[in-house]
Amino acid sequence: MTAPIKMKAIGFTQSLPITDQDSLFEFETDIPEVKDNDLLVKVSATSINPADAKIRIRNAKDKTLEQPKVLGYDAVGEVIAKGSNVDGFEVGDRVYYAGDVTRMGANAQYQAIDYRITSHAPKSLSDESAAVMPLATLTAWEALFDRLRIRPEEKKSILIIGGAGGVGSITIQLAKQLTNLTVIATASRPETEQWVRDMGADHVVNHRNLVESAREQGIKHVDYIFNVADTKGHWDAMVELIAPQGLISSIVEFDGGIDLSALQGKSAGFIWELMFTRSLFDTDDIQKQQDILFQVANLIDAGRIKSTLTTTLNGFSVETLKEAHQRIESSASIGKTAIKY
């Protein structure tokens, strides 16, 4: 397939409320340049993540960008061209990936993406079901095995705060499929409690009174905590619940400070997880993201991991993307929302 010279994209130049007419707009731009390590992908589906809303709200708060910023940090599509250094991919391959926050995102008809953070898409999933997986999967896998350094054979416990969201949902599944951990997830509504149980959680606790809810179920301490909801808001509860010599990881930044010294008595640790770190700094192990996505595609095709898709919006348009942003900003969504182009 030959790409045209121009393409349509959807982006923003000012940080505006999503209900504002100009919060997102369509424009025409050049097809991305294909670098030596790049695949050029015709995008067929994407999904919405908190990162999309955060970047839209923050990146042009007191200024107007000279060039529109194009979001979209999950994608499925067809390879239509490749760079000279690319290995393992051919034109026509169906791929999935989360992308690179420093480059043009997937809210466009075509996207250039580093092959080292890209994998062949799961064969058993539709485009929209596959599109919701990469960012959350990479985040969950890195948190479990790179940040918390969980060993699959250890019989310990993990508390996942924010169990019903995209990252929480896949973290539960990976922990149940690839480790011997007892998985405790938070939920506060009947529908979210059922969802996390369906994902495989052994215990469900209420994040609105986290310590009390855990203690009611006989949970005094947990060996690991992964917070995908609210780091600062749950800090005191995490300090109380983490086991001596335990580890806490989080993906949620915050304003102001926390009392990190509160962990000293327990010799407990805190570590950040950011899925974009490897691509931001072109780390020596950047290709590990390709390997993670490849392994998870195999787990999906083997029926061990299921897609976290709950809603599909149809059409590459400003309207569908605005609706997706409104959904993610509500903080009440279960699973993930895909946009099928």
What does this structure look like?
The protein has 341 residues and is an alpha/beta fold. Strands 3, 5, 6, 7, 8, 15 and 16 form a 7-stranded mixed β-sheet that branches. It has a 6-stranded parallel β-sheet with strand order 11-10-9-12-13-14, sandwiched between helices. It is globular and about 60 Å long. The chain contains 10 helices and 16 strands. α10 (318-329) links the parallel β15 and β16. The two termini are 18 Å apart.
How many strands, which pairing sense, and closed or not: the largest β-sheet? 7 strands, mixed
Give average pLDDT, whole number: 96
The computed structural class is alpha/beta
- Provide a count of the helices: 10
Series of H and E elements:
EEEHEEEEEHHEHEHEHEHEEHHEHE
Strand portion, in percent? 25-35%
What best-fitting shape do the alpha-carbon axes yield? globular
Helix content: 25-40%
> Radius of gyration, rounded?
20 Å
Measure the end-to-end span: 18 Å
Assembly type of the chains comes to single chain
Number of DSSP strand runs: 16
Detail the poorly predicted runs. none
